[in-house]
Amino acid sequence: MPANLLILPLLAGFWFLHHCHRYRFRALHWDGYRLLLESAVHGFIFLSVARGLIIGLKLIHGVPPLIDNYWRPIARIDYLGSGIGSFLLAGTVSFLDNRSLTPFRSRDLFESYRESRAERRGVWRSVLDAIATAYSLNSEESSAKAVEDFGNPLVRLLDSAARGGTAVSITLKNRKWYVGFVSEAISLDPRQTHFRLTPLFSGFRNKDTLSATPELSYSALYVGIQRMQAASLQPKDFDITIPIGDIEIANYFREDYYLRYFANSDAKTIVQSGRDDDPPAEYENPAINIG
């Protein structure tokens, strides 16, 4: 095979790694040499399969007249079909794998199809909706698996808190202290240097003892939003953006244990201020529960 055609399987491997959810989020963690090697290995696999298919078809059926009459006069370079075939295989395998589901997730796929049918959508529209659901779920699972395997402890904690709707306690380098819910899952993308937090309350840490002191509670704000029933205003509109590199301390937060064992009377007053005796239900963001 001419050396200049090797760029096609190399590009096929690179495209596959960046579009297949199984590898896409892991590839964000690899350096240049590792990415080049992985692209070459996967490209060689697709090239070998494409070449094997072409040889097999020739042995079984011979050269089809369509190819003999139209393809050969245009593509006079040897093995060009194998190179293009590797690229087509990479796209096909990526498309199919991104829409595959584990047996556990297959139930969600069926629910999506049933909901579309219940809304009196056509069969094909319902199938397309189910495929889109499979793509989204596959992406979420692959991202979570990549963070679990390659993320540092801080990234894993923030990602787990976002997916599980668990409150976290964040202390910054300037001793500012926030408690709230991570609004979106964390990825391994090096460009993602910040994350969004929906705060429950905030304060500071003492410079000598590092004990946390709450100063501001957002409960009254969220209760007011629910009472107004304004669809254009949600708690997530008050998210704060925090640089990941500025975090000094991070941990899961349980408000009931904090109030029972760590908070003094002033802290309890601030944390619980603005709440009704009958706490409101969860907001649109499933992580937000101020009750």
Describe this structure in words.
- Helix content is 55%, strand content 14%.
- The protein is built from eleven helices and six strands.
- The chain has helices spanning 7-19, 21-27, 32-61, 65-74, 80-98, 103-118, 123-150, 153-164, 219-228, 255-262, 265-272; strands at residues 167-172, 176-182, 194-205, 212-217, 240-243, 247-252.
- α1 (7-19) crosses α2 (21-27) and α6 runs antiparallel to α7.
- The chain is elongated and about 85 Å long.
Strand count, sense and closure of the main sheet?
A: 6 strands, antiparallel
Number of domains: 3
Tell me which CATH architecture of the largest domain applies here: Roll
How large is the count of helical segments? 11
Low-confidence stretches: 277-291
What average pLDDT do the residues reach? 77
Annotation, overall tally of beta strands? 6
Radius of gyration: 27 Å
Secondary structure: elements and pairs:
Blueprint (H helix, E strand, L loop, with lengths): L6 H13 L1 H7 L4 H30 L3 H10 L5 H19 L4 H16 L4 H28 L2 H12 L2 E6 L3 E7 L11 E12 L6 E6 L1 H10 L11 E4 L3 E6 L2 H8 L2 H8 L19
Antiparallel strand pairs: 1-2, 1-6, 2-3, 3-4, 3-5
Summary?
The protein is of the alpha+beta class. The protein is built from 11 helices and 6 strands. The chain has 3 domains: 3-98, no CATH class; 104-150; 153-272, Roll (SH3 type barrels).
